[in-house]
Structure prediction request, 244 residues.
Amino acid sequence: MVKRYGDRYKLVFLESKRVPGYEEVLDEWEMFERKHGRKIKGTCKLENNIARAKSRIYEIAICNEWSHFMTGTIDARKHDRYDLPGFRKKLNSFIKNQRVRVPAPDLKYLIIPEQHMDGAWHFHGLFNGIISEMLTEFGPQVPSNISSKYRNYHAYSETFGYCSVGEIQNKEAVAAYVTKYITKEMAKTNIELGNNLYYCSKGLKRAEKIKEGRLQTPPKSWDFENDYVKVKWIDKEDIDKYIV
Prediction:
């Protein structure tokens, strides 16, 4: 099959036909567990969770429009810096409030939480729908190398803590960049605490399947392959060359 990710196209070759009625192809680890009839734990599954999270983050990042990249911290005087679920709940309410009160009706986000060495949380993320009235210049207390490139999201900083917001110049580069925040240690910590590896607004676009059939001409090389699936990023004009 070929799936469209924004302006990019991914050729996906499956070794076997998916089960009728399934909305998505089973990921590699789910297929392994079904084959062996048991749940597997350990490093391999952690690595699979990381790969799956990175894939979904990239998919959401590349399939949607984003105007700004943001790093947000949590001030202990405004919220518990170690309570990620509580922060996420409060952030959801904050976003809904901003959509109505600013108003910024199209405000959406994709964020990846990350821990400081002491266990406190902050995040990196993509935002869309931020309008100029929501951003202010930093004061003299912020170093010039930051204030010259980034702006302050005033309502966020008043509610949660320090943040920096910059305009996105290259969506593909940023989509690839944000996946790098999903590290092995970060994933292990989040999974152990029962947290998600990323959070996003509802209603965001996902990859769209645009063609399915038999592989007519295999690529000279694949970008990724294992026992179940092979993947290749292709040009739009080559779709019919590969699939019949």
In short: Residues 43-63 form the longest helix (21 residues). The chain is about 35% helix and 25% strand. The first strand starts at residue 2 and ends at 5.
